[in-house]
Structure formats: C-alpha cells, structure tokens
Write a structure and sequence with these properties.
mainly alpha, rod-shaped, Serine Threonine Protein Phosphatase 5, Tetratricopeptide repeat
C-alpha cells in the first residue's frame, strides 16, 4: 500500500510542478498583455493629443493665412486709392491750368487785356510743359499789342516765331508783328516782314490785308 502511494506521488508531483509552472506562465502573459494594453492606451492618448495640437496648428495657419490675405487686400486697396487720388489731383491741376488758359483767351476776346495778360502769365508760370504753351506766346503778344504795350508784344511775337516756324498761325503772326513794328516806328522792318510773308504764304487768309498794309507804308 505504501509502495503504491509512493509511486503515485512520484508520478503526480511532476505534473503538479508543471501545472504550477504553466499557471505562473499564464499569469506572466496576462500581466504582459495588460501592460501592453496600458501602453497602447497611453500612446493613443498621446496620439490624440498630438492630433489636437496639429488641428490647432492648422487652424492657426488658416487664420494667419486669412489675415495675410486681408492685409494684402487692404494694401492693394490703399495703393489703388492712392493712385486714384494722385490721378485725381493731377487731373485737377491740369483742369485748373486749362481753365487759366481758356479764361485768359476769353478775357482777351472781351477786351479785358490786362486781365488776359495776368491769366496767361499765371498759366505760363504754372505749366511750362503744357501742350498749349506753343499758342501761349502768340496770345500774350496779341494781348500786349491790344493793351498798347508794343515792346513786350514784339518780344512775345519774336519768341513765338523762333520756336514755332511750322505752326499754322506762323504767317498770321508775321502780319500781326508787322503792325506792332509800325507802332514802334520800325517801318522798314515791317515792310521786309510783310514782303517775306507775301512771298512765302500767298494763299494765307490775311494776304490781302498784308498787301494793302504794304501799299499804305
């Protein structure tokens, strides 16, 4: 009986040992799995946190991009407004200058020669680059002549002629200057000028008057 009991113990003991070992191994595996799951959860939290940070960065970038776009639009709008203001200012200056010139000629036509001279001189001083300056000297010469300021008229006629030989009013200025020269008792110069006009511009609308004035001298 004892012998049989001993044999059972001999066979059962290793089995109990192996069962305990397997049990311990099972516990270690479960612990490892729990640990891994815990780390996975921790990593998931970090991933979610990073995702939130990335979303926040993207949102900030979107906002900054929108702000930059708005600033650029404001900058372009300011540039456009400044250009419009500059253009408007330049146009106003041109309009004012043209008004001076027109008013000067109008005052001449009305017989207000001193006022005409003042306006034309103001125009000349304000805009030496104006396209109307070519005519300006002619109108100044006429205004001075009408105001009986013959020396000034002569100077303006000569300046006009020296710079505008191809001007359509050049032959007219020759006739008008000859009359100024007569007023200054420069009769010979007036005759030569009239002869030059008649020879060079025989079809001019003032040619008959030029011939008659020459005969009268």
């Amino acid at each position: 009986m004892k012998k049989k009991l001993f044999i059972c113990i001999v066979y059962i003991a290793p089995m109990l040992f192996l069962h305990g070992a397997y049990a311990n191994e099972g516990l270690d595996t479960d612990f490892a799995i729990l640990k891994i799951n815990k780390e996975i959860k921790s990593l998931n939290k970090k991933i979610l946190s990073l995702k939130d940070e990335i979303d926040l960065i993207k949102e900030n970038q979107r906002i900054n991009s929108s702000k930059i776009t708005e600033l650029l639009q404001m900058f372009e709008l300011n540039l456009s407004n400044n250009k419009k203001e500059e253009t408007s200012t330049v146009q106003n200056q041109v309009d004012n200058l043209n008004t001076l010139y027109s008013d000067g000629k109008n005052q001449f036509a009305l017989g207000n020669y001193e006022q005409a001279i003042l306006l034309l001189i103001n125009f000349e001083e304000a805009s030496a680059e104006s396209s109307s300056v070519k005519d300006l000297k002619l109108w100044l010469a006429r205004a001075y002549s009408a105001n009986k300021e013959y020396l000034k008229s002569k100077d303006e006629f000569l300046e006009f002629q020296s710079n505008n030989k191809s001007h359509t009013k050049y032959p007219d200025s020759m006739f008008e200057l000859s009359r100024v020269l007569i007023k200054l008792n420069e009769v010979n110069e007036a005759k030569l000028l009239l002869l030059d006009m008649i020879n060079k511009y025989p079809r001019n609308s003032l040619i008959n008057k030029a011939n008659q004035l020459l005969l009268d001298l």
